């Protein structure tokens, strides 16, 4: 397990190393070295890229905008790139940015190399900015120009959120480095480091002294996830830390789903009870059947997968059930997958090949090569059964809203959420979400950040604090498949907590193509704070043209949206994310608009997020997902409408994804 530094990210204590955590690693850590308390999150989307963000509470330095005595809380984002992987003779080399956006109170850049020898791991680097405050070496980049000789002053607090590009790799530098020693007792690691920071110009409330540039520390790994740290820094100050880490790429849970039905001999004639077959398909294979159709020697199932994320597992279980209900005249099982009433694709299964593979592993390859998928094309046939529409669906569960990092301190809201849908037909439904707050500390909410833009998001605290019972969403939605590759959706009502209105979306998505293009347009009006049916005066048009591209590189999805945001600013949102084999998606976004300094704090929006499959935490399979997102500030600029549904998500089965890598799931 690669240890987290005081600033988060793999490193020693105050200094980074060139080491990287395994791809998919997610880490939370806390460290205290007076007068700083650091709360860190680190993500490893690739084995060559580490990204992180943190809050630093500066004890004794007040938050100037806070109404009570609270410590100043600084926000920062980091990135580290591996330039060279360690070999037998050469070290691993990495380039990094620390506290790259915002006030840059701890901003710095570095180039570092690490080399392992037996139980020792040595690191040596060059630091700029905060990492090189000692400034005892002239910047070698000054050979490229005089601008690299001096580093501009730190940006002011009013520039929070901006990248200090004019500071990068400028000014004098210092050497830093250290060593880790893996003791014979496996849980214990000892550390020694030399800092390039002399603490002569700190953002603390009072000056700090450094009696020694050498820091000493120890890390004790409690178990596979938790590590404790102790150290002695600056020659006069104790350090304590705790970190939690887990690898999301392998996140899974043992399943206790019903076993696949036993394959029986084919009956002499079709079943007379297709309703029973439909119910068994739902209960065992996770297929919500719409219709069962006979087309000569083919049995076609129109339906929606509802349980298993693996489509081969769904079809494998369904094949067994259909084989037990149909006579030998049926040679092919065809599945026309749908979502929200829209047909997405067809998976075609040869019955005899499947049966032979179930009975003998030697025939599994023949079955795999017989399976194919195609766009939804074939129509007609005899309808054997049509499942009555399940009109009403509902769910109930707890929720947590929280905000951490503003002048009002940590704010939270615990609530119960009720979701319900009433389907008028297979392509239309009324959906609503009601929340009841049973515990919060939103009475502490006072600060509203400065903004020259319309207040489209910064009144979020008023919406959360105004009423315990809130109608978050109440809208009617209709979908349609316009042509072979075109999908459409229209909606109207209370679209989200803060806006009501009407809108529509179209999506061009060819079958199994890495590329898709969508456009949405919405007219919205701001809702009153009590989240009932009354509306405020502010209204606007908002919408975006969005391109989606499955890059084919390590399962990375790239999205670019261009359009008009809620505050009437025009701009672009870039979103990059990677999905691991576990189904976890790790991503980040950044939005740039023409709002400029009218943003208030910073000139663009940014954040990171995780999209987690629910069944990774439970013993029952599910296709549901939950999303965790973090952004340093709530801004009015670059604010999008939070639409409940998006066509790209609804049409996910249009893409084959890892279908062919999962064919062994057909036997589970």
Summary, kept brief:
The chain is mainly β.
Descriptive notes:
- The structure is a single chain.
- The protein has 668 residues and is mainly beta.
- The chain has three domains: 25-250, Porin (Beta Barrel); 274-388, Alpha-Beta Plaits, CATH 3.30.70; 392-654, Porin.
- Helices cover 8% and strands 47% of the residues.
- It has helices at 274-285, 311-325, 351-359, 364-370, 460-466, 647-650; strands spanning 25-33, 36-46, 49-62, 71-84, 92-98, 108-117, 120-129, 174-182, 188-194, 214-221, 226-233, 237-247, 287-295, 298-305, 332-339, 342-350, 372-374, 382-386, 392-406, 409-425, 428-440, 469-483, 486-494, 499-508, 515-527, 535-550, 556-564, 570-579, 585-593, 604-613, 625-630.
- The strands form three sheets. Strands 19-20-21-22-23-24-25-26-27-28-29-30-31 form a 13-stranded antiparallel β-sheet, with no helix packed on it.
- The longest helix has 15 residues, at 311-325.
- It starts with 24 loop residues before the first strand and ends in an 18-residue tail after the last helix.
- Mean pLDDT is 91; it is low at 155-161.
**Largest β-sheet summary:** 13 strands, antiparallel
User: What's the CATH architecture of the largest domain?
Assistant: Beta Barrel
Number of domains: 3
Main sheet strand line-up: 19-20-21-22-23-24-25-26-27-28-29-30-31
Write down how many β-strands occur, each being a DSSP E stretch of 2 or more residues.
31
Percent of sequence in beta strands: over 45%
InterPro entries: YbjH
Protein name: YjbH domain-containing protein
